[in-house]
Amino acid sequence: KETRFSRSPYQEHTDFLSTKAVSATKVITEGEDQA
User: What percent of the chain shows pLDDT beyond 70?
Assistant: First the structure.
C-alpha cells in the first residue's frame, strides 16, 4: 500500500526547511534586540 507519499518528499523537505528558517530568524531577531 504505497499511499504513504500523498505528501511528496519534496513537500516534506520544504516544510522542514521553512521550519528551520523560521527558528533561525527568531534567534537572529532576539540576538539583535539584545545588542
Answer: 74
Report the alpha-carbon distance of residue 26 to residue 11 in Å, rounded. 23
Residue 6 has pLDDT above 70, yes or no: no
pTM of the model: 0.42
Measured distance CA(20)–CA(8) in Å, rounded: 19
- Lookup: cell for 19: 521550519
Q: Quote the distance between the C-alpha of residue 17 and its chain's center.
A: 3
State which H helix or E strand residue 32 sits in: helix 9-34
